[in-house]
Structure formats: structure tokens, C-alpha cells
Amino acid sequence: MKRVLIHLLDIILFICILGLILMQLSYVMLRKETLVRFGGFFKNPKQYDVLIVGDSHTVNAIYPMELWNSYGLTAYNLSGYGNTLPVTYWITKLALEQAEPKVVLICTKDLGFTQKLTASSGDLHTAFDCFPLSKTKAEAIWDLTDSPDAMDDYGYRFQDLRAEYLFPLLKYHSRWPEINAGDFGEVDSLQKGGTMAVNLAVPDDYTITEDIGSEDSGFGYQYLHKTIELCQSRNIDVILINPPYPAPYESQVRDGVAYYIAQEYGIPYLDFVYMDSIVDYNIDMFDSFSHLNPSGARKVTDYLGKYLTDHYSLTNHKSDPAIAPEWDKDYTAYDQYKLSHIDLQQGNPNLLLMLLHDPTLSLLFYIPEHSDVYHDSLKMRLIQNLARRHLFEEDEGSEWADGLFPLEHLTAAANTESAYFLVIDRKDHQIVEQTGTSFAPVHSSFGTIRCNGNSFSIDDVQQMPFEADASFCLLLYDETSQKIERTICVK
Question: How far is 272 from 354, CA to CA, in rounded Å?
Fold first, then answer.
């Protein structure tokens, strides 16, 4: 009997060791995109007061770290590329097994999509690989892949791929040639699920309509109802959102059904397609038809931050000693990540200007006489966007208005091709413009700025030289690090 017991313990020990080895091997072999996006959620899921779920448009539209910095809100963006509303339902259910949010934001774009899945098997892996194996995860995979006709983009039936979604090692066991040191260490989720998509695109044409469809059947509608009811059963407030994009007529009619669904459940519906004064599609689009770049995303994020703090009893955790130190540390790393994007775009003036629409960057901005900037309508619009005020009131469907541009002297400087000097002081909410050949000192929160012939100085320390043949020059003061981070002269 004793020998049998010892043998049994040996078997149990072997199984435990094998399990630990397989768990570590699975982590090493796992494609790390899922951890970069969602790994941070699992470190302390109960700290998140706000969860965001949806598809790629929400990934690129809402930045949790900006919600933290401006409003002290703890949020995580669990949206994923290619997520349909059935996928969103299951991601929400899995997340709520670990998290206890007060508010869930649900993206309703593509509400009328007729399939449970898109064709991208890789997107489905990114959405689910981060979640540990559980009964709910198995139910999710079986439900989403229940159609025998559903095929991925490589021609495989999703039903035949079920095992690899439950056990990702089956998918990634052949990754050995790609493995590097980064696969063994912990992965940082700097953006807490949001993702910067850095580009500028000319938007597709569109017209705002007041027509709304009446159909409330099909997978998208069914699973939106299920997601709302899941959250409300746990006393979680729900907000439906349709991210801004130049939506064609058919999409506006189909997705507008979310308005009636929101009324049915007594919850808000924020239709940014209809409220299209929030972003400027001419400079806020990553691509021509749907996704936002960082300039547009910061406007949407700021709108939502104010909306959440105005309408819900959410705690500003900035002074919470249990949360603030770690979040501030994360934000400092995130801030440096943002600056790295600025460094990457110093050879692309348009993308550089777009990235400078940032509530944490104060700046000096100088345009010399006869600059070619004055003859470039896109650059002029992007310069106006540096100080663009955010809009919080719902605008009844009118398209984005140039009248929201706050820089009053820029056009006058362009008309005479004279030198132009701008100070944007984020801390003191101050905008100072001057034109001509001499500039009066400007007192800002980060020092007194003076023009010294061919350079500008702060507190009499030379900081930003400029050249007459430059298109523009700028100095960036980072409110997070509280120091001058960059001086850039673009020719």
C-alpha cells in the first residue's frame, strides 16, 4: 500500500512539473501581440473602473493612459482588431470574471455584420490567447465557431481550429526560429489596450443622414443585447459608442439602430459619426475610411473623460496612494513612448505636427518670414490644430467647423508672409501669438521667453536657435517630465 501511495504521489508530482513546464513553454512560444495589448489587464484587473470593448476603431480611438493623466480614471481598452459584437460579448464575459468595473463602454460599429467572425484567425488569437483556459473560454470558442461554413483567411474551417484557440501552444509550437530574448521576459502593456496609429489620410466623402434602420435581428444585434444585459445583471453602467469615421449612408442607417437599443435599456448612446464636430476628418484620420490617428483619438478620449466624470460617480484616483504611484510610473513610461513617436517623425513635418496635438506638451512654435508653410493648406490646418479646443456639447449633425480654430493671427501672418511666433502653455491654459520681426517677452509657467536675434531663450538661457530658411522651428516642454524635451527645426 505504501509503495502504491508513493507511486501515485510520483505521478501527481510528474503531472504538476509537466504542467508548469508546458505553461512556461506556452508563454515563451506565444505570439506576444496579445500580451502587449492585454497582458497588463491581468496584473490587477479589479483596479479598473472603466472597461472599453469593441473593434479596431475603438482600439485606435480611446487611450486609457490619457484618461488617467487628465481625469484620474482607471480604464483598460479590451477592444481588438476584427472583433465582431459576438466576440465583444465573450471578451466582456471573460473580463468580468476577473474585473469589477463601474462602467463598460461598448462599440456598436458594424452592428449589422452578418457573421460571428471575420476571416482573420490571427485577430481571434490576439483577442483570446491572453485569457487562461476556462469553462467560459471553451464556451466562447465553441459558440463563435459553431458554423461549419466559417472559414479563415487561409481557407481553414474555424471548427477545425478550435483546439489551437484553447491551447495556443498547438498554434505556436513551430515558432522556435523566431524566439528571442524578448519572448522570455515580462511584456509591458504601455498603452493599456489603446494603440496609436500614426498616419494622415484624406477622408472618404460622406453626408450626415437622420435616417435610422429598424432591423434588430442578426448576430450583431443579438449579442449587443446579451452584452448589455450581462453588464446590467452585475449593476454595471453601460454606454454605447459609435466611434467617429466618415461613414457611408448604409452604415449610418444600419448602425443607427443602436440608438433604439440604447433607449430600450435606458442607457446613453454616443454617436460620434453624427457628432462629427468632435474630430476633424481632414487631419484626424489614420486611413481614409475609418480609423483615427493620435490627434483624433485624443479628442475622442478627452470627450469621453469629461462625459464619464460629469455623468458617473467615478473616483479620481490621482491622490489614491494605493493606485496613483504605479499609474504615474506607467504614465511616465507612456509619455516617453509618445516622445519616441515624435522623434521618428522629425523627417515628416505633417505627421510631426499631427502628433503635437497633445495636452501634455507645451511649446514654442516659430515660422520665419516667407516660409513655404504659408502655401501649404494642410500644414496650416495642422498648425491650427496644435491649439484646437475640444468640443463637449453635442452638435446637431453639422460637419466639422473651421471656426473652431483658435489661432487668430496665423492667417494674417500668412497673408503678409511675416514671421509668426506662438506659445502654447498647457499648464496655464495660455495661448500667445505674435507676428513681425520683434517679439515681446512672454511669461509662461515654464519660464520667461525672449527673442534674442536668431534664437529664443527661456529665463535667459538660450534654448532654440532658428534659421531663416527653415519651414518652422519648435521647442517642446513636457508637462510630465517638467523639462524641455526637444528642439526641432524643420527645413
Answer: 20
Judged by DSSP in three states, 285 sits in strand
In a domain, 335, yes or no: no
Q: b/e per residue, 298-315, with b = 16+ CB within 10 A?
A: bbbbbbbbebbbeeeebe
The 10s digit of each residue's pLDDT in 161-176 is 998 888 875 565 454 4
Query: Do residues 158 and 304 share a domain?
Result: yes
Which pLDDT score, from 0 to 100, does residue 119 have?
Answer: 85
Task: Return the pLDDT at 308.
Answer: 97
Structural domain harbouring 419:
346-490
341 within a domain of the structure (yes/no)? no
The CATH number for 266's domain is 3.40.50.1110
At 5, is the pLDDT very low, low, confident or very high (cuts 50, 70, 90)? low
How far apart, in whole angstroms, are the C-alpha atoms of residue 475 and residue 455? 11
Check whether residue 298 and residue 373 sit in a common domain.
Answer: no
> 23 pLDDT band (50/70/90 cuts)?
very low
Phi, psi of 16 (to 5 degrees): -65, -45
Residue at 427 is within a domain = yes
Q: Are residues 404 and 290 in the same domain?
A: no
Q: Residue 78's closest CA among 113, 104, 54?
A: 54
262, exposed or middle or buried, with CB in 10 Å at 0-12, 13-18, 19+? buried
For residues 376 and 425, membership in a common domain is answered with: yes
The residue-averaged pLDDT of 279-302 equals 95
pLDDT at residue 34 in the model: 78
| pLDDT, position 24 | 47
- Residue 451's Cβ-side half-sphere holds a number of Cα atoms within 13 Å equal to 19
The residue ranking higher by pLDDT, 26 or 366, is 366
From 94, 88, 96, select the one nearest 57 (Cα to Cα).
88
Looking at the fold, whether 303 and 351 belong to one and the same domain comes out as no
Among 327, 355, 383, which residue terminates a domain? 327
The answer to whether residues 245 and 214 belong to one domain is yes
